[in-house]
Amino acid sequence: MIGRLNHIAIAVPDLAAASETYSTTLGAKVSQPIDEPDHGVTVVFVELPNTKIELLLPLGEDSPIANFLERNPGGGIHHVCYEVDDILAARDKLKAEGARVLGDGEPKIGAHGKPVLFLHPKDFLGTLVELEQA
Q: Which CATH number fits the domain 5-133, given the four candidates 2.60.40.10, 3.10.180.10, 3.30.110.170, 3.30.530.20?
């Protein structure tokens, strides 16, 4: 069901410093920050030859990333994102097998302009999983 790894998301307490680390220290191509108010984050994408790294900073007081950073003040891996061909079919199959879809279970438009869903980390070895329609 899952396809390629789309990205690994890392929550960071300082987006400018994290972007600088990836661009200067590691020599990666880093996008400009993009505000995603529907998801409560500001994101930066680090382009790699085979995938992306998504750097996340809280946007607004209700940001789920703010809670993550309270527990992990230095930042850390927040989630992994896998591509699927049909997000609704993937959701329905996963729910039928007992997986929990976060939120209302309906896809939202993600930072790449495509439908996304998040799956409960307790159902996936302690890892928050994002599915993105390819």
A: 3.10.180.10
Catalytic entry in 61, 97, 106, 130: 130
d(Cα 28, Cα 22) in Å, to the nearest integer?
A: 6
Is pTM beyond 0.90? Reply is: yes
| Separation of alpha carbons 45 and 49, rounded Å | 13
* SS3 (DSSP) at 108: strand
Active site residue 36: no
Span 12-70, pLDDT tens digits = 999 999 999 999 999 999 999 999 998 999 999 999 999 999 999 999 888 989 999 99
